[in-house]
């Protein structure tokens, strides 16, 4: 048999990077396997328009303990987007405008009603086993319908969530309630943690800083086709039919890619079902370079009612304006179709002229096959906790299965730390 590593970590996103670093710093031999030609996973800092942009996961917060610890450790700061007082919202067939205060006056009572039971449903948001699982059977749509709203009210409420939603019917309400409970029941706090603060130098800078502390062997462009645990060690077989052996494996891949990998012994039926049903988010982010100086604004439209569902002026560049757009359904618009993007933005601001766009299609990316993680009804308290348990010598990590912070960079990093700690304990015990 070739070299036997202590640990093979599959997937060099934020979870895999952190797990590999922590284990290698404890003196264990670690190989980190990544299908792409870069590290970072569903975070992706790249150059466009002559400047650096985040085309994947972006936002962090000081209330996120794992990522904040790493940012402090590496002396990396955060910064906000441009301040905006202008708001546009598509509701009941018309675009309405006003100040952000006007928008919040309409939204606040609706959102408060939607998440009124967040603290009672998730008294300890970090521990879903202490939560009632009945609410986990509800979709976002189930909860919204139960409120008995007018068409105008429903569109305001759905528009406010459109930056997180691909399908109100397929995504569970429990993840939203858990997130709001984690910000002390304040939904504004939750949305701030989800969509506001950028990393100075981008997620690429943080990934590079963590990688610089790791002695793991990094192998890029090494996609995996199977993982087999024989009870004594694990064999990871790459698509090039190379066998890599390790005492333990941490699989830190998006769940939508796990159907492409044969795992033996088979996973528990509920876990297989969650993997088979997929993470439902098939959204995209488009950065737009718009001509000239445009007044900062926020725009909101319910998923399915405009190709661009959330938009915000984020910065200026060489006299032009950079606008971050979220498209709830990536298939509804092509990022390189400047006329289509311009038309969708002109729904809110008629004078916008699109100069250029930049995006990455995470849904068609073979190593993600979807966007940020969001649990389908039943999975937050059902299959996900099972997936966080060790499966023989195989452990799982990644944002899609986080106990708190699923879909966030924090959730990914949290699972990486936990998986590394559990594997280190098993190695210390001589397993």
UniProtKB/TrEMBL annotation:
GO molecular function annotations of the record: monoamine oxidase activity
Pfam families attached to this UniProt entry: Amino_oxidase
Reaction catalysed by this enzyme: a secondary aliphatic amine + O2 + H2O = a primary amine + an aldehyde + H2O2
Domain Amine oxidase positions: 14-423
Cofactor: FAD
Matches recorded under Gene3D superfamilies: 3.90.660.10, FAD/NAD(P)-binding domain (3.50.50.60), Guanine Nucleotide Dissociation Inhibitor, domain 1 (1.10.405.10)
Entries under SUPFAM superfamilies matching the protein: FAD/NAD(P)-binding domain (SSF51905)
Enzyme Commission code: 1.4.3.-
InterPro entries linked: Amino_oxidase, FAD/NAD-bd_sf, Flavin_amine_oxidase, Flavin_MAO
Keywords: FAD, Flavoprotein, Oxidoreductase
Positions contributing to FAD binding: 224
Principal EC category: oxidoreductase
PANTHER family: AMINE OXIDASE (PTHR43563), AMINE OXIDASE [FLAVIN-CONTAINING] B (PTHR43563:SF1)
Family from the record: Belongs to the flavin monoamine oxidase family.
Protein name: Amine oxidase
Organism per entry: Aspergillus oryzae (Yellow koji mold)
